[in-house]
Design a protein that fits this description.
The protein is mostly helical. The chain has one domain. It contains three helices and two strands, in the order ααββα. The chain is globular and about 30 Å long. It starts with a helix and ends in a 6-residue tail after the last helix. The mean pLDDT is about 85.
Length: about 55
């Protein structure tokens, strides 16, 4: 994901999202309830998107 898209959607740039994923001690791959295999940065982006209010467009 490009830095501009990260900042627009999540306020953070890509390097900060990667640092947050490491600081939260997320495992390298996360397996959610739907049994998809997600990289920890992608899982964190989904979490940030779902918890953002109001939604950024």
């Amino acid at each position: 994901m490009a830095d501009a898209n990260c900042i627009k959607g999540f306020i953070f740039d890509r390097t900060v999202i990667l640092q947050l994923a490491e600081l939260f001690a997320l495992p390298e791959y996360v397996i959610p309830a739907r049994r998809d295999k997600l990289h920890r940065s992608e899982a964190l982006c989904i979490l940030l998107y779902r918890t953002s209010y109001p939604r950024r467009n």
